[in-house]
Amino acid sequence: MSEHKPALARRFRGFLPVVVDVETAGFNAQTDALLEIAAVTLRMDESGLIYPHETHHAHVEPFVGANLDQRALDFTGIDPYHPLRLALPEREALEKIFEPIRREVREQACTRAILVGHNPFFDLGFLNAAVARTKIKKNPFHAFSSFDTVTLSGLAFGQTVLARAVQAAGLSWDSTQAHSALYDAERTAELFCTIVNRWRALEFGGES
Predict the structure, then answer these.
(1) Which of 74, 83, 89, 84 is nearest to 37 (CA)?
(2) 59 with 93: CB under 8 angstroms?
(3) What distance in Å separates the CA atoms of residue 165 and residue 170, rounded to the nearest whole number?
(4) Which among 53, 57, 59, 179 is annotated as catalytic?
């Protein structure tokens, strides 16, 4: 049966890689607010190369009682209560992100999604904490496994900072857009695809 699965499912042992970035009001996933989340799904073309497919993004209202560290807000430039953010309650925001990922997991015949992130321990921690708070039953992501583009970039390019790794990969980087979940997720997705595709080129004796 496995040979009939889509190539992407076979490539990652049944996992669907989804690139995620979050912006928060601090470093403690249990107490600090989740403020933005973005996710980029990936697909594979007929030649076996992966590429970014769809991007999903939501601004998130701080949960009741959430801590808002002003230093974190100054760093990201986010005003959690700005009316033009059009922020969603935490559960609604998560469902907006999760639903298309669940659909993609089904369409690609995968067992579940696996989070790809730059320091994914941070993103997955906030994601899992928000899922626990909102009591969402069908979290599409693996609870603890992830792909880390910090490690992959260190191996491939000798760089661990996202901006430097993206540039070392030959991709563009706009520092004025950095530290938004949407921008960082899309650049991380491009970075991950570049590294995986270069490995494929080496594996098959081709050039990147």
Answers:
(1) 89
(2) yes
(3) 9
(4) 179
**Amino acid, single-letter form, for residue 107:** E
pLDDT in tens, 50-66: 999 999 999 999 999 99
Residue 142 bears catalytic tag: no
Nearest CA to 130 out of 57, 56, 55, 24 is that of 24
Spell out the residues 6+ positions from residue 151 whose beta carbon is closer than 8 angstroms to its own. none
How many Å apart are CA 56 and CA 76, to the nearest integer? 19
pTM higher than 0.70 for the full model?
yes
Beta strands (DSSP E) in 61-205 are 112-117, 141-148
3-state helix, strand, coil in the chain (%, to 5): 45, 25, 35
